[in-house]
Amino acid sequence: MAQCISTSVEKGHQRRSSIGRRRFSATLKEYRGRFYILRRCLVMLLCWHEYE
Questions:
Q1: Which residues form the signal peptide (predicted)?
Q2: According to the model, what pLDDT value does residue 41 have?
Q3: Domains in the chain: how many in total?
Q4: pLDDT tens, residue by residue, 12-50
Q5: Of 5 and 31, which is predicted with more confidence?
C-alpha cells in the first residue's frame, strides 16, 4: 500500500516538473524573441547613417 502511494506521488511530481519545464521553455523562447527584436532595432538605430 505504501509503495502504491509513493508511486502516485512521484508521478504527480514528475507531471508538475514537466509542466514547469514547458512553462520555463516557453518563457525562455519568448525572451529570446524579444531580445532578437531589440537587438535588430538597436543595430538599425546605430547603423542608419550607413544606409542613407
A1: none
A2: 95
A3: 1
A4: 556 667 888 899 999 999 999 999 999 999 999 999 887
A5: 31
- What does the chain come to in residues? 52
Alpha-carbon gap, residue 5 to 7, rounded angstroms: 5
Q: Which domain holds residue 17?
A: 2-51
Distances (CA, A) of 29 to 4, 16, 22, 33, 42: 38, 20, 10, 6, 20
User: Given CA atoms 11, 16, 19, 25 in this order, what sign does their dihedral have?
Assistant: negative
d(Cα 46, Cα 33) in Å, to the nearest integer? 20
